[in-house]
Amino acid sequence: MTEGLLSLGIEDLGLGLSGANIDRLELFLQEMARWNRVHNLTAIEDQRDSVVLHLIDSIAVLPIMDQFLGNKAVAIADLGSGGGLPAIPLAILRPEWRLTLIEAVRKKTAFLQHARGKLELKNTEILSERVEAVAKRRPGEFDAVISRAFTSLANFLELSLPLLKPDGLVFAMKAKRADEELQEVSLDQWRLIADEPLQIPKLKVERRLLVLTPMRKSPI
Asked: What does this protein do (predicted)?
């Protein structure tokens, strides 16, 4: 199975992945494919290469996230985690980060709990709740928030704001419509600090990672 990831260019990301890293990513893919046949976790069905490319798409954000977060024990929330992308690959490759996967659909959180146990991911927690409910219970708890194909950028930012620490970061994984979505964001509330293209080996579509931080008002 390892040759599958290697043939699709995972080494071209320059992340210095170990054999153990790749084995665990492969195990995650196997479990996702197995559960997907029964539980329809994602829109991807039997095209294994597509699943792998979605995984590579997810970990391509790491070089940029590393620039902002480094190897600190930061707390990151993945909103609408679905089948675990990008949070589970990130948890595998950055064990020092603490990832909270928030997903309201119970069949998906059942898979996430299974994957967490199978991969022994002690740096993750799974919450089977709506994002709004988590924000009310745990406001201002997270250093960063990330999401992949969850909702529009404006809505994602609105949901993220109450979860973030004052200097928190939002990592928004976007495709070619990013410019249109940025036009709907209030520059009075958010500052765009990075807009980086993602190089995805053998995937000929535009991918971008937007990094934003809230504009906190100074006390009068």
From this structure: Specifically methylates the N7 position of guanine in position 527 of 16S rRNA.
Helix/strand/coil for 119: coil
Residue 103 labelled as part of a binding site: no
Degrees (nearest 5) of the Cα angle 13, 91, 74? 105
Q: Output the average pLDDT for the chain.
A: 87
> Is residue 106 annotated as involved in ligand binding?
no
What does the pLDDT read at residue 150? 77
Task: Spell out the domains of the chain, with CATH numbers in brackets.
Answer: 56-214 (3.40.50.150)
**177 marked ligand binding residue:** no
Residue 25 among known ligand-binding residues: no
The pTM score is: 0.90
Question: Which residues does 212 contact at the CB level (< 8 Å), separation at least 6?
Answer: 157, 169, 170, 172, 185, 190, 191, 192, 193
Question: Helical H runs in 40-121?
Answer: 48-59, 62-69, 87-93, 106-118
